[in-house]
Amino acid sequence: MDAAATSCPEVAQHAKDDLAFYHPATPVWEKALAIWIDSLGKVGIKIKATAVEPSAYWPTVMNPETNYDIARGGWAPDWANASTVIPELFTTGGGFNLTRNQDDPGYKAFEAASDAAKAELDRVKQGKMWQELNQTVVDNLWALPGTFLKAQSMWGSKVGNTYQWGPFGSFNFGDLYIKS
Question: How far is CA 98 from CA 18, 75, 95, 122, in A?
């Protein structure tokens, strides 16, 4: 927090005054939020929790008029390529940009680089472009991983072709069958 106070004092002061954190009003999120508040409090960042009724959470945080500093979200890529993550989550055209980063001075260059990566046909070159864009996201703190989930999947001995499909993190339901 000391480095932030020197390099961007207005942001550091805002973090000390309370960051508005919107989250679904659920018992799980109340527990997770307690950990966030405690952990971030140790470095001088204060969280002002705002619980939102779960069915109203997404309409609330996706509304551009809702004023928050932090909102939680999850994402599963359509397929294993950053083109289904970075543009969707970090550009205004993606439809799921909770970062509201369009006012950041570096956003226009980021968006142009994202558009260029989407148009690049050389997969090796495109991969390097996505890595650089991902690093930009990390460097600008446009996303903070805060909750990690675990899941167990079970299936019976009469279900065939069961495997975890990486891009979706679930079964490939189109390939399942019942054994005779």
Answer: 19, 12, 9, 30
SS3 115: helix
What mean pLDDT comes out for the span 129-133?
96
How far is the C-alpha of 4 from the C-alpha of 176, rounded, in Å?
52
Buried/exposed code over 121-143 (b: 16+ C-beta within 10 A; e: otherwise): eeeeebeebbeebeebbeebebb
CA atoms within 13 A on the CB side of 42: 5
18 — alpha (psi -120 to 50), left (phi > 0) or beta?
Answer: left
Quote the CA–CA distance of 163 and 148 in Å, as a whole number.
21
Q: CB of 73 within 8 A of CB of 98?
A: yes
95: left (phi over 0), alpha (psi -120 to 50) or beta: left
Give the pLDDT confidence score for residue 113 in this predicted structure. 97
Q: What is the pLDDT of residues 60-91, one digit of tens each?
A: 998 888 988 888 877 777 777 889 889 998 99
Structure pTM? 0.68
The structure tokens 């046909």 sit at 121
* Alpha-carbon gap, residue 122 to 120, rounded angstroms: 6
Please count the other Cβ atoms lying within 10 Å of the Cβ belonging to residue 8: 12
